Amino acid sequence: MSTEESSETSRRRRHHHHHHAVHLRPAAPWKIQAHVICDGFSEVLIYLMIVFSPWAFGTTEDWSINIMNYLGYGLGGLLAVKLALRWTSSGGFSRWNDDVENSESSEDYVTRLHFLTRALAVLTMLILGYCAISAYNARSVYDWNAHAFNELRHLEWLPASFDQPSTWKAFYMYLALAIDFWAIHDWLQGKTGPDEVATRIKAGEPVHHARRLPDRFRRLLWVLCINGGLLAVEGMIQRFSGTGELLFMRRPSVTHFEAQSQFGPYAYRSNACQYLCLLWPVCLGFWWSLHRLSKSSDYDRRRLARYRHVAIVCVGLMVLAPLLSSSRVGGVTDLVLMIVTTSIIWTAMKDRKAKMMLVSGGAVVLIVGLMLGWGYLAPRLSEDDLTSSMMGRKAIYEAGEKMFDDYPMYGTGPGTLMTLYQFYRPDAGEWVAQMHNDWLETLVTFGWAGTTLVCLSFLIVITRWLVPGGVGGGRRLPYLIWCAMAGCFFQAVWDFPFQVYSVIFAFILLCSVVSVMTRRRIIPDRNE
Fold first, then answer.
1. Distance of alpha carbon 498 from alpha carbon 102, whole angstroms
2. pLDDT at 209
3. Which residues of 287-300 are buried (b: 16+ CB within 10 A; e: fewer)?
4. Which helix (H) or strand (E) segment is 397 a member of?
5. Is the pTM of this model over 0.90?
């Protein structure tokens, strides 16, 4: 290809990438400043939600759920303002995706990213629409005073809830969580001033300087790490004290009154384990990113990693806590994650001494955890306790399978399990609010149609990492985030992590993180 043809091709590609901005003026200084302010408020709200959700007794009560919903709607308002500012200007807002949009060689990648983003947005709307239709087209309303269903007129060929108020409550929660996802997704794609300096590539400068962990990622992970470490410490102190009061101030109002069933601010010990096991593999990946920065020849990058030892201490505390919680599934998940995550970090390490320190540290945490926690866990591993627990769960699962067989396509409606379960439970069985199997409960309440939409959304989230362009954070951090998610899915076979707001919010937050990361960044063309 001649020089003239190459120049013409470059001109056409640049025109293709920026044709949407031809009629827009560059962003005015006040718009850029307003965008920065909105980003600042978004950051504050995100951190507030991270800290509040587990400490507010796991966000399992109406008052705390409402607060989290309102905070999510606030994030949505800030996101709407930022989108309006960007859509009415041609540029000036520093974003990580600019590298893809401005690269001549990235036309195919831009097409793929736009397809994935739009597909995920459409699926988000479909899931919310599915819940709204199920609530609006409800077939009944449950009367708690009369313990009876009041039937409503509805269309049989559309999703229809068996309890309209419960499904509307679920819809408002899912709406807030969907806004959380997209707001965090958008916020993470913004560049700070130091990010701009660190990723600016000049002639002759090595490309690897663009692999620095972004400031917003780093601050977010620090909040997760420190908050998780404090939560683990509080849970262990409460366990050793023997108190039956959550956070030493109140007893649960419905169930789990005894101290052995609780852990930290969570009335149900397994929920605490689910939250911590969702956090610590991610924080381990964060520590590894800081460890790599500490080996850099660049002083500014080494300075960012100077507190990395605090991160690994927090990880150790979060690994230790589930072993003391007396949760059987939580303990097994903790041990499996220790083996898998240690293997991932082991393969990345080159120094034999560092490898030995990694294994030794893990072994010490495991031994200490078993020594301190075995007295709480051993009684729950007795044959009588296991048999009793399995018989109870078996009865619940059989009832759930009957519910799914009766309403396989659209389910009974999001949030309706507790009201409808009473008609399927065995004669001597208890009336439960959760199925203790989130896979089965999702099928029961959402049916095949809704469950398929949810699974497709998650598939797109994890597929995003395979497409070049976006934020590069290395390979180990995404691997360890996936491990944390897999651990949550594993626990969902025997428990209900996705029915607890604080756990599902942490899961959605990690989905947002993964949705903006990539295995390979696109570097802007140097001749532009």
1. 40
2. 42
3. bbbbbbbeebeeee
4. helix 383-406
5. yes
